[in-house]
Specification:
The structure holds two protein chains of two kinds. Chain A is mainly alpha-helical. Chain A has one domain (2-260). Chain A has helices at 2-20, 23-50, 59-80, 86-92, 95-99, 105-112, 119-135, 142-167, 169-172, 179-191, 200-209, 217-224, 240-260. In chain A, helix 1 (2-20) runs parallel beside helix 6, helix 3 (59-80) packs across helix 8 (142-167) and helix 8 (142-167) runs parallel beside helix 13. Chain A is globular. Chain B is built from ten helices and 13 strands. In chain B, strands 5-6-7-3-8-9 form a six-stranded mixed sheet, with helices on both faces. In chain B, helix 6 links the parallel strand 6 and strand 7. The relative contact order of chain B is 0.13. The chains are: A mainly alpha, B alpha/beta. The interface between A and B is medium-sized, with 28 and 35 residues. The structure holds adenosine-5'-diphosphate and magnesium ion. Magnesium ion binds at residues 55-56, 173-174 of chain B.
Chain lengths: 267, 323
């Protein structure tokens, strides 16, 4: 086990060295990533320059939810954000070269594509969350501290699962294009706001059907010690780990099913 | 001892072909259509066939890349897809048309990374690397990023990486495709030496017949996903009645025509005659009649061309599949 981790550490380091060989483009990407992500927060702030309360939530509360969601997403994005590139491996048959190595397919692909260029986003999202925590009026207890640390981690796990599950579409639908990206980024945007802003059926599908309410919204309510305007029970704030684990299980099943459908290309 | 065994191995692909402007029709293509093989430990086998015959697809099923659609397959006593990771430690694979190296890093780094991936003890790794370095002349480019290597240099790197963990079987899919003469010869020479040592079973697909002639005692020819020949090159010649040619230069035209059973005059241009000799016939009587004529200046015997016999084989297979 420890041995296997060492192998992956070597592979990830090699990936880092590869990217570093394009030094200029690396820094350019790192820089532009920091700029790009600023726009989302700006959008939230613009809304609150017009209205004092958004669907029952104040600006500090909303920014806290935004920060939780952003941390979860950035962390997931760093590790599995490139998994949607599986569609190229499938289309060009290059997954062949991964399948001949004595390691798992998914971990190898992840190690081949760690998004070091996205490290800037992690720093940025931590900064946003810190500011939100300072501004929000939280009644700190040991449990809330645990909840604060656990929320981005399980949220990241949920996003990882979602990234992976949607990417497997490429295995049986080669022309799926940007579909996986659209779904995942859509999911991120959904979790950036209180779910009360969304229309009924849309909310039901994304928040409860797909489970996005448990990334930031319910744990956020528990942190703030607020009741759910939608009338949900308090304990919903604590089920994120269960949702994340379930999502992980579904993603793993999708992945195994997908790899079995891999057909390479003529060569 | 059998190391590779397949029975009625099949792979079909579903493909959508255009039918009309918007409609697409589903059809299935049998890329490999019932291949039964048995390869012994230490053998060196050439897997031959025209483009699209199903060579690569067979290799992918043997290496655990593709799940067969039917039939049985066992490699090193394992079931390739189900036991992919176990099998991967015991085989080496080279794809002529696909790189398995770290594109942006020096070749040396790929070697080192694979030592970890395959968990090879450092001393063993170093010993194998030394052998490859000498035989394949790697030192001059081991520090160059792979993306800057020539195809020939890269292929030598690929061969090395496939061998560093001491595989029991080496699978090579068109290892000489696109290489210049010097690199081709380096690769062939290296494989010949590896084959002679006898501890590595080698399965090599190619459509370059020179590879086969140089390297393989046994060839398996497939066409349209089916085995059409499995045996030695000599057996292939015997089966398709390959004929040796005797090329004769004379001082003066012959007065009486040569008449030897099994020998046919193929062409005659002035004082140069070309005879075709059946596989079973001996050239002895022909030579003695020529000597008796007193005008013989020079004589060469040309072995049958493998190209010819393979071409004849494909033709016959095509006729058979039509009939
Ligand atoms: N992934 C694939 N999807 C559809 N058809 C394929 C695929 N891979 C191979 N084929 C078809 O199967 C046949 C055999 O291909 P291949 O094994 O690559 O031939 P070759 O003998 O040239 O290596 C060809 O007709 C090819 O078009
Ligand atoms: Mg091929």
């Amino acid at each position: 086990m420890g041995d296997t981790l060492r192998i992956y550490a070597k592979l990830i380091a090699a990936q880092g060295r590869s990217q570093a060989s394009y030094r200029f483009s690396f820094w350019l990407d790192l820089g532009s990533n920091v700029i790009i992500v600023g726009a989302d927060l700006l959008a939230v702030l613009v809304i609150f320059s017009r209205v004092p309360v958004l669907a029952g939530f104040s600006v500090t509360e909303t920014v806290l939810l935004f920060g939780l969601s952003l941390n979860a997403f950035s962390l997931a994005d760093l590790f599995v954000g490139n998994i949607e590139r599986i569609r190229f491996y499938v289309r060009f048959g290059t997954l062949d070269t991964v399948l001949i190595r004595p390691l798992g397919v998914l971990p190898q692909l992840l190690a081949l594509d760690v998004g070091f260029r996205r490290i800037g986003r992690i720093i940025y999202s931590l900064a946003v969350l810190t500011v939100a925590l300072v501004l929000a009026d939280i009644d700190w207890t040991p449990w809330r501290v645990v909840l604060l640390i656990a929320t981005p981690l399980f949220g990241a796990m949920f996003f990882c699962a979602f990234f992976i599950a949607t990417s497997t579409v490429a295995f049986w639908w080669i022309e799926s294009g940007e579909l996986a990206n659209a779904l995942t980024y859509g999911g991120r945007d959904f979790t950036s706001y209180p779910i009360t802003v969304y229309g009924n059926w849309f909310r039901r599908i994304f928040a409860f059907g797909l489970g996005f309410a448990f990334v930031a919204y319910y744990p956020g309510l528990a942190l703030l010690g607020r009741a759910d305007p939608l009338g949900g029970p308090m304990w919903l704030g604590l089920v994120s780990p269960v949702v994340a684990l379930a999502a992980g299980g579904v993603a793993a099943a999708f992945w195994r099913f997908g790899v079995r459908h891999y057909r390479s290309t003529g060569s | 001892m059998k190391i590779i065994e397949t029975e009625e191995l099949k792979k079909t692909f579903t493909v959508h072909i255009k039918a009309g402007r918007f409609r697409r029709k589903r059809t299935t293509v049998a890329a490999v259509d019932g291949v039964s093989l048995s390869i012994q430990r230490g053998e060196m086998v050439g897997y031959l066939g025209p483009n699209g015959a199903g060579k690569s697809t067979t290799l992918k099923m043997l290496t655990g890349v593709l799940q067969p659609s039917g039939g049985l397959v066992s490699v090193c006593g394992l079931t390739p897809v189900a036991q992919r990771i176990k099998l991967a430690r015991r085989i080496g694979v080279v794809f002529g048309q696909r790189s398995t190296l770290w594109w942006d890093l020096p070749l040396r780094d790929s070697f080192e990374l694979l030592r970890h991936v395959y968990r090879v003890p450092p001393a063993e790794h170093a010993a194998r690397l030394r052998t490859c370095r000498d035989l394949l002349d790697l030192d001059s480019f081991a520090d160059t990023p792979v993306r800057q290597l020539s195809l020939g240099q890269r292929m030598r790197g690929e061969l090395t990486t496939a061998l560093l963990h001491g595989p029991e079987i080496l699978f090579l899919d068109e290892p000489t495709i696109g290489l210049d003469i010097v690199s081709k010869q380096a690769v062939r020479g290296f494989l010949a030496e590896l084959g002679e040592r006898g501890d590595t079973t080698i399965v090599l697909t190619t459509h370059d017949l020179a590879d086969i002639e140089r390297l393989c005692r046994r060839i398996i020819v497939i066409d349209h996903g089916r085995v059409v020949h499995d045996g030695s090159i000599d057996a292939l010649h015997a089966r398709y009645g390959s004929r040796r040619r005797v090329i004769v230069d004379l001082d003066a035209p012959l007065e009486t025509p040569i008449d030897v059973p099994g020998v046919e005059l193929e062409s005659s241009t002035g004082t140069r005659l070309v005879f075709a000799v059946d596989g079973s016939a001996s050239v002895g009587p022909l030579v003695s009649q020529l000597t008796a004529s007193g005008t013989l200046r020079d004589l060469t015997i040309a072995e049958p061309e493998i190209e010819d016999v393979i071409a004849r084989l494909y033709q016959q297979a095509a006729v058979r599949s039509l009939g």
